[in-house]
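Internal tracking record. Fields below are filled automatically when a chain is submitted to the structure queue. Please do not edit lines marked as system-generated. If the sequence contains nonstandard residues, flag them in the REMARKS field before resubmitting.
Queue: standard
Priority: normal
Entity type: single polypeptide chain
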Amino acid sequence: MNHTRLAHRPKGRALRATALLAITACTLTACGNGHDDASASASSPAASAPAAGASSPAASPGAEGPSDSALRMIANGGHRLAFHVTPGHLPAIVLDAGGGEDSSQWKEIAPRLHSATGSQIITYDRAGMGASDEVPGPWKVENAVSDLEAGLRELGVTRNVVLVAHSQAGEVATYFTRDNPRLVSGAVLIDASLPQLYTDEQIARLVAATAPQVEAARKDTSKKANRQLIATAESYVPLHEAYHEVTWPSSVPATVVVSEKTPFDGSPQDARRWREAAAEFAAAAPNRALVTAWGSSHAIPHDRPGLVLEEIERMLGRLS
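SYSTEM-GENERATED OUTPUT FOLLOWS
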């Protein structure tokens, strides 16, 4: 679809723009339990975080882990990241939130998952979210992967990890698993951003649709959500052109859970491409499964937490 046609369909353009933000920055949609700048500021490292490597009970709105988890601040590349750890046995289950979300996205699921499995549960805030330091400049998936690697290394997690990744975290999970196939035992990808989606045509559609929102964000950089959107937009095209060529290791099993409504509810063509990308990913290897979260929006962890738990437990059963 060319830019001229987009200009004649403002409603569709807004829907696709909202969808892009749902995947990357979640500033215009409710992807579960979003938090405003006030809560983010209250939980910023400058306000409340202990020194790097220290532990304390998990607290602070916008960055809370399970009630019995401990907060570890871990340094990497000159910034600090908040990891919430609930002790347990292997495999360690790492829950990675969607774009614009922090570890509190999992506050309902994480304790239930620990109770059901006894596994070590790890949630964390990517840079700029929750209690983790904000990093200026374009968002780079390589930096996000490095942060996760540093956190797991510092926590002594060196094998048998099950990744659970929602939305934008699917990109982090894909690169992380490609680089660490012996560390990752399996993954559950929840309405995740997958390489198959990002054809040149689809990238162009998303960029054109989001341009007005990005320009508006540039006019008010005092808001954390706007800064996150700008950081994502600055690297969006080259990042996703490269991502389209990335492959998931065939040795690592994965379950793809796709929502019925997708992030593009209201844009049938884009919703179809999202579902097709999930199906193409799942069909690429015999150790992958495709599950549809019927009745769910893109915010599957919020809309269908029971299904998320079920699929994680199913993955654990496959690995035992």
